[in-house]
Write a structure and sequence with these properties.
By secondary structure, the chain is an alpha+beta fold. It is 35% helix and 24% strand. The protein is built from ten helices and 16 strands. Helix 2 crosses helix 3.
Length: 423
Amino acid sequence: MLQRLAILLLWATMWFGPARAASFDPRLEWRTLKTPHFNITFHQGEAALAEEVAGIAEAVFEKMTKELGTVPKRPTELVLIDPTDLANGYATPIPVNTIVIFVTAPNESSVLSKYEDWNDAILTHEFTHTLHLDTIEGLPKLLRLALGRVVNVHRVSPGWMIEGLATLQETRHTTGGRGRSNMADMIKRMAVLEDEFPPLGNMDGFQIDPPSGNLRYLFGQDFQQYIADSVGEKVWTKWLHAYGGGIPYWLPSKRVFGKRLVPLYRDWKAYTQAKYAAQADAIRAQGETTTTRLSDGEASCKGPTWAPDGEQLVYACAHPVDGPAIWIRKGEETTRAVKGAFAQDFTWRADSDAFFYSATHTVDRFNLYDDIYFHKVGKKYSELVTRGLRVRQPTLSPDGQSLVMVKNKIQLILLFTISKLKR
């Protein structure tokens, strides 16, 4: 008897998924708004947003429980928090079904930027996780009654199945989604054309080379869409219930899809390669534009901006080994202007001797905010112009006396101006 119990405990431990913990600013004051299916917890400044999210969340509940054929037993905890200028969110089934939304919407350079209503998009994605990870049937359900919520079959699914399904549903059930994103399509297309199509065993994206973690979202969604197109629109709902009542790591692909995953993967890879090869051939037939790469090809670079003198080009790169840095290209020479900084937006002073840029940094220990920096060419360090203002995309006026920026404030996008600059 003890031996059997030990085996059951070991089995349950294998199903345990890591619960997330977060440290929030202790100065925040929290309130909870209850709806039929959600407890929405929010802090000061978010009352209007919480009211808006309440209606959206209930609409998401209706469409996604119908789509996936499962309903949580108790209300889902939904936390709205605004500690960062980076769009994100996550869901966990432990200790109870919980969704945390960082309320900032994505900016235009994000792979998440294809959306009509960000709250609808992020809630559709994260609530899909909640329903997916909470689906448990058969013997695993009996074990959960005895051992608690640590028994969770879907938590040990491949990451591309977990994130791919949520990305599939955000595309299917909203007017945007990464499945419609031109940027996501570009990433997949270039992976094919550069002969870097991810192997099935690396679809989770545990690699430092781009697109790294995006693999499980973008290629996971694409593979799942291919299977749905080939087998049937509701095939992933069937998968949810089949695997949710099965044995961890024993994927019921033949029973659900009619074929095993490896042959399906090969078919999808061949289809995707043919699709993007045809696109490339059509573009080459029109004539390609000749380009010269200025960066080393290993770093991810953004924000190239010419100085007014037309001789200097500033840009930022994040290198997988050397880390982030801001670079200046002049003629055939490239020099590192700022070590350890990454920026997407630059604006030069009229004399081409200095520039402003926006970058994300830690503010008051608990927050990651965008602020403006000033850098004089030739200096090793930059000067912080704003602190905690949550501003980006600086643009200097022609007379150099004013700096206009975009300000983020709880999903509001505002224009902000600093006048009488002394730099």
